[in-house]
Amino acid sequence: MSAVTRDAEEAVRGTADGGSHGGQSDTRLLPCGRLEAFSDGVFAIAITLLVIELHVPSGQEGLVHGLAQEWPRYLGYLVSFAFIGGVWMAHSNMTRFIKAVDASLMRLNLLLLLLVSLLPFTTGVVATHLFVSFIAFDAQPSMTFGAERVAVLLFGVNLTLAALTIHLVIRHAARTPGIPVDGTAAAELNRFAAERRLAALLQAGATVIGSIVPVLAVVFYLSVSLFFITEPFRLTMRRHASRR
């Protein structure tokens, strides 16, 4: 057993002992090690499954031409990879500041994993129908554009719900007594929750755009995901610079 796991279990036992005087809810806290390990596994599998949707061009057509025709799949892969990476970073930051989990946090976390594990499917749907719309533009424009909008909206709803759920996970961790390591950790968690709320709002806005300009919405999804991946690094560099 690692030192981190032992420390977490000792913290939970200490909280449970204190709960006999302060309230019955504290006795239901559990170590966060298994939640973190299970979540990391699901994130890793979801990212791996995204690659399955990248098709190798057949030998009957030029390689460059074949790769160019597959660009919607590459775009979908980049969007989902960046999004899952951003959620994983937020989740990892959260677990740095908590010492235990409760049943509600575990349920919210399972909902988050459900939505993340659905992303390879919705990514495949949006990539396939963006691809079809460009191939069959002259043949059936109304049908392909209709399918394209539905696919992008489905993808956007999946992203928005996942972004909203990670916000709820972090907010619950921040506001539940006994879960944050201390008051400073609770303040950091509240800041993380505010960032993820903004991400959910931006993803929802992009989903609305998807009903009008589907391809633009997918590009916007990617931009939002990349922003929330790079933002923590920018803030860290700014803090280091302010200390000098």
Can you put this structure into words, describing what you see?
With 244 residues, the chain is an all-alpha fold. It has helices spanning 3-22, 33-50, 63-69, 71-96, 103-135, 141-175, 183-210, 214-243. Helices cover 81% and strands 0% of the residues. Helix 2 runs parallel beside helix 5 and helix 4 packs antiparallel against helix 5. The relative contact order is 0.12.
Characteristic key phrases:
244 residues, mainly alpha, 8 helices, elongated, disordered N terminus
Helix content: over 70%
**The biggest beta sheet, please?**
none
Distance N terminus to C terminus?
39 Å
For the secondary structure, the number of strands is 0
Structural class: mainly alpha
The general outline is: elongated
Number of structurally distinct domains: 1
Radius of gyration: 21 Å
List the helices and strands and how they pair.
Blueprint: H1 3-22, H2 33-50, H3 63-69, H4 71-96, H5 103-135, H6 141-175, H7 183-210, H8 214-243
Helix pairs in contact: 2-4, 2-5, 4-5, 4-6, 4-8, 5-6, 6-7, 6-8, 7-8
Offer a quick outline of the entry.
The chain is mainly alpha-helical and about 240 residues long.
